[in-house]
Protein 1
Amino acid sequence: MSQILNEVMTANAEYVSDFGAKADLPMPPGRHFAILTCMDARLDPAKYAGLSEGDAHVIRNAGGRASDDAIRSLVISYKLLGTREWFVIHHTDCGMETFTDDIMRGLLASSLKTASVDASGWHDSGAGPGSTEGNYIDWLTIRDNPTSVVEDVTRIRNHPLVPSDIPIYGYIYDVKSGRLVEVPEATAAGRAR
Amino acid sequence: MSQILNEVMTANAEYVSDFGAKADLPMPPGRHFAILTCMDARLDPAKYAGLSEGDAHVIRNAGGRASDDAIRSLVISYKLLGTREWFVIHHTDCGMETFTDDIMRGLLASSLKTASVDASGWHDSGAGPGSTEGNYIDWLTIRDNPTSVVEDVTRIRNHPLVPSDIPIYGYIYDVKSGRLVEVPEATAAGRAR
């Protein structure tokens, strides 16, 4: 068993030992809202937004982007499980600002099956050598943070399966302070109609 | 300001007030692993797997499914940010087991802009009345939990952009106990090659 697997199982056993009344939580989120945010390791949405188990749906991907899959999840969240307010929360110092589709495609195409990391923390390894699969993926990189939040809130607001009466709030999480800072243009774009 | 927005901002202010050394965390996950799991409100991956801020990437969508977007996120996690072990964690009593594509399409097509909830907790509201957009979405529902974990680990393992040397572990989180239960066939399918 790997060290990580061992550590995760040990932490889980501790969690189980004090699980208590959480066993009785119902499926629908008790506080009727959902957060779409980034997978970044520094972000803990339960902590930064004050969530207990059972409170809210949390959807996360690279960038916290309003991908088709994130919208699939939000529509299910609303339609089947009753959330009535949504947050889109990107963050400062996001990895998605550090590359472009072209860079990612180049990195993947030149993969050499080594596991070196250059000074910037970028790995040049893995994936089938010379694979061109990455050319067909939109990596959803971010050029400018407030803009990405506005774009994503707007995309969700205008999606044909998203009900017009749900407010969508746009925020940026500051990794240096833990603070949620509103992007007013995003929240305005996400206003219920 | 809505009550939810107010509560979230109050919780965030408290988090900010005791942020401390988290301000100095680097972008790459310190423990070099990633978890793909469900958006379900009852799941707190940081708690059930023992994560502190900075430790690991967490990707979440409806079902914890290995969608194209989840794979986009995992490839970025590995390639740019150095994760070297991945977990796929579905859970018992998942909302994705309670409906099918046909049911979802019917619900969306018959939306009446009311906000009723029937006895099963299903909402019949929202989305443009008569919209057929839902017919074009694969909702990634789940028929059987261990099977979905095996399928998703296998899909990730066989994806052309996923390096063959990363182990992928398959688990089910039990919402009644908080326990992570391995799906051995999934972990076997996800073994590094």
Protein 2
Amino acid sequence: MTEPLAPGAVIGMLGGGQLGRMLSMAAARLGFRCHIFEPGAAPPAGQVAEAVTTAGYDDLDALRRFAEVVDVITYEFENIPTAALDVLEALRPIHPGRRALAVSQDRLTEKEFLRGLGLQTAPFAPVDDAAGLEAALAAIGTPAILKTRRLGYDGKGQTRLTAPGDAAEALAAMAGAPAILEGFVEFSHEVSVIAARGQDGAVACFDPGENVHRDGILATTTVPARLSHAQRTDAVLLAGRILNALDYVGVMGVELFVTRGGLIVNEIAPRVHNSGHWTQTGCVIDQFEQHIRAVAGWPLGDGQRHADVVMENLIGSDMDRVPELAAARDVALHLYGKAETRAGRKMGHANRIMRPG
Amino acid sequence: MTEPLAPGAVIGMLGGGQLGRMLSMAAARLGFRCHIFEPGAAPPAGQVAEAVTTAGYDDLDALRRFAEVVDVITYEFENIPTAALDVLEALRPIHPGRRALAVSQDRLTEKEFLRGLGLQTAPFAPVDDAAGLEAALAAIGTPAILKTRRLGYDGKGQTRLTAPGDAAEALAAMAGAPAILEGFVEFSHEVSVIAARGQDGAVACFDPGENVHRDGILATTTVPARLSHAQRTDAVLLAGRILNALDYVGVMGVELFVTRGGLIVNEIAPRVHNSGHWTQTGCVIDQFEQHIRAVAGWPLGDGQRHADVVMENLIGSDMDRVPELAAARDVALHLYGKAETRAGRKMGHANRIMRPG
């Protein structure tokens, strides 16, 4: 463990979307300055960061110059190319580290890692070609989902198979990319645990939130989630097991299916997570500050919740509801500064405080 | 009243200190972009704003260019020169408006304005010269404080007179500036009301906080303050009277002395106020967002408090306590990103949540 980063230090952030934006503001609260690295022009995080480098993740010179002017590097998304990581890691510490990225960048590696820890996952099988898909379907059955192993999010790169006859079309949709077939799990609801691990190995968890998706995108997260005491304990224990196994530093989102047979890990994200946005309104130290604290080698907040909260994503035309939400006395609005409203695009979120205290 | 400002609009901010910094972050939460105008290099607010103009308030061309690229103008301090206001006001709306600035830039005008509303103030008299000071001392007695009418804050530009014999020295300290002699008030404690008024004339008040000063600088603010129900009502009523009389738009800090004879107005500040920092931890919508909402023509938050909070300023070497404060589970830290720690300089604050709910 290195010395805690002193206020005034510069945190380098890969990715300039809304997560990077809220991380930048959390970093500023602790007196840190932020430098955003982002390929796209006018990133939302750039509006609240001290510096922005606009360059692609394949621009190794730009990455090198970026690393040289920051004190530590973190990221808001997990799909950072390996060559970029090689350049950055040679110059500055990156948190969370390579192992967490390797695991979460590949759905197959992730599932195998989770199974290796003794945790439950949906049934899965690798699919590299038609023969592999046939074998996978024989083992798992339908309905099932064929997903690219890498680079999928919010329902992209996924095809649902309702019968074995869908195989050819589904495989064609993968465009030759290595894939994984996942079976369906009968679950009553989905929850997620936002967990953090500090450089000293301390683990802190926020209360699990209950997630509702619409069109493959998170719509709402509600705390407290419907869970028994034993399920809450299990959720914390399994999150701790994952973080410790990865020697993880930072915040992780762990999505869980609640089933009669226990909690099943859906997926993990090595970063702050949409389902943790409620912590901005429900906790003294939110997930964004928690992540910055971990990355900076500071002590973690303990995750205590002081209110019930419903977080609602504002997607596309939900922006029309901003005047109404702004007038509600129990709603904290968070808008992301995106210039263009598009269908399916996350434009902001609203945290409704349900029962203070 | 104009149309509410749409997310994406640019808020121009005069002053780039910690208040401007926290206002910038609040504006960003609502999807606004911020442009800071500040004479000093590397302002704390610049770290979290989209744009910074570095120029003096006497640089009328720079002010004009600044005004032309923003949608509305506000400020973090009240001592904006008249010529600067003339240039800005001709181009864009400024909130709070000229009348509030005229009143609060001059201690004598302010006291006369408050008295005109039927509110209690400390005894006062204008002092322009030795004869004036003699007359003022005859009326008010000692101890008393001689203050410049303009441009004082945090105890600067003030001299205490313990006996009439101090008159010559005190007057010399004013260096010829118009002054005001203020008598002392016997008070049990000081409280402040952070009040807001929207463009629609709606008024909202946060719960009064109780202030403790050290060396003339605010040390702590505690909510709830020690006040009777009637005193709380009085505090809200008098704040409303002040805001309405000024046709005010924005947040104002109203400092009050609690005395046996009722509440006495110490001073008003036409901006967010140090004694309102606790709202970041105790309210869904804090004073910074409240101010931005008013300036942008949005509905105000209602000011409801959901926790007891003690706000402590971190001044100068208090920064040595950051590691300890960072490790406390009930403390939200806010550091201002100032490069240099100096004695008497506000470096940050810590909001300790005492009793959630």
